[in-house]
Amino acid sequence: MSGPTDTILDRGRTREVTGVFHSRRALDDAAQDLLLTGFDRSDIDVSASPDEVQRRLNYAVIPPADLADLPATPRQPFFGGDDLLGAEAVASSVLGCIAAAGSALFLMLKGYDPLAVAMWSILIGIVTGAVTIVPIYRLLRRQQVRGLEPVAEWDGLLIWVRVRAPEKEAQAQEILMRHGAQAVHVHEIDLEKLPGDLPLHSLRPDPWLGDERLGQP
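User: That's the sequence. What structure does it adopt?
Assistant: Structure tokens below.
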């Protein structure tokens, strides 16, 4: 019996340029170059963390050039260092604003002076933002935090670039090879999108709800 994580959301055949990097910086530079030359961010995928790759492929030892051609190889959207910094700043700022607004409302209901309310709410917001930046950093950069980055570089970092025209194929291959990618080639592959491939797939709005689909008997 298949579970919710086995549900196929979408399936399609796509043409991609793929390559293998042994440096995170080189991969990031190549991806940024692709974006600057007109490739859409949604068309660029990179390999998931080494432990996720091993788990999904049942701990089989497969050369990275061959992994790139396997539909089962786990992927994730590309996020560069600047993207992560922006996400960390936005997330901590939002949490800080929520804390400031909540504390201001609480203090107003308690009858505090408006000046004191403003000062305390700003202070609480700043402290909350500063405190929450650490767990946000650990969440978004968990591969580096867990020490998996050197392992990933040693095994090989994969990149996939979806292309829809011959000239884009040639352009993507040239960019990847210019930044040091190995085993650069074009392939056609049947991809399946599962719930686990979606961002925040593990987020459950109500922890009391199970994994069953709503409205099902």
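The mean pLDDT is 75.
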